Amino acid sequence: MKIKVRQGSETVDDTGAVSRPGERQRSQGVNMNTQTSRHASSIVDPPAPCITGVRTGYLVAGAGTPVVMLHASLGSKSQWAALAERLATRFRVIALDLCGYGDNPTPSTAASFTLDDEVRLVTAHLDRLVAPRVRVHVVGHSYGGLVALRFAQCQGNRVASLSMYEPVAFRLLDEHDAALADVTQLAARVTRLVAVGRRHDAAQAFVDFWSGDGSYACLPLPAQTSIAHRIDKVPLDFQAAWRWPLSPDDLRGIVAPTLLLAGTRSPAIAQRIVTLLAEALPNRCTWWFDTGHMAPIEQANRINYWIEAFVEACAEVM
């Protein structure tokens, strides 16, 4: 059974009010009134939650229908600590480290690395942790959202729902799209700086692009060091994104109910991708916030509220 959720885009301001041109639509069975959330001061992963099921490369908590969580570039399974604790009372939460992050080493086969390597990692974990034929809810942010999209494309029969905040599906954009030029330059710069060992410079370029100029410099020195230590994987994230042979027709085959979340203060390319995804996915709802690309970390309580509501609504009709 699938839930029909296709709706127009709406914008949520900092007070939680929802507005868009034309008549307001209500999400089916989901209370979409937001709550004021506390703002985090950095993009660094929060501490791991007090959950006993932490293992190498993943954490598991709770019981019930599985919810799989995929983090952004430079993150780890701990990115979803707060959401995991919220959902673990009703679902079986599985937060994973993607390749080269958290407990996982950087892939040794860098030249041939693709998005399907990430999908194989996710699939291998699910084969061990989830009973056959049990469908899972998938949550992803940024690069993790892109992995979630590819997983849904390859393993559609295993996906009960998708919740994504600004998946970086760069291949959706036309090669002449102005928004694509900026991220192409960023990818080349980060790759070049990593290659010559200038990790802090590479980390600064990457963080400031997604979070705003000066964001990296405002982080405490230990946080900067931690990010710079993980930056070696980012060129492979870009490589994987460029190599995905994606088209709108491919996306129309993803029929799972999908929640697309995005920020009106995010980089232009992130907003363009979400707009194009909203046109291509057949069973989606899209909600815009007055936030930036890192809102799932910097404003976790606010974004988690919407993801939690959507997953619960989809679970009710499974």
Brief overview:
Helix content is 40%, strand content 15%. By secondary structure, the protein is an alpha/beta fold. The protein has two domains: 10-18 and 42-173 and 246-316, Rossmann fold (3-Layer(aba) Sandwich); 178-236, no CATH class.
Number of helices: 12
What class, by secondary structure content? alpha/beta
Largest sheet, in brief, is: 10 strands, mixed
Q: Which geometry do the CA atoms define? A: globular
Radius of gyration: 18 Å
* Strand residues, percent: 5-15%
Order of helices and strands: EEEEEHEHEHEHHHHHHEHEHH
- Based on the coordinates given, report the CATH architecture of the largest domain: 3-Layer(aba) Sandwich
Number of strands: 10
Q: What's the name of the CATH homologous superfamily of the largest domain?
A: Alpha/Beta hydrolase fold, catalytic domain
Low-confidence stretches: 1-8, 11-52
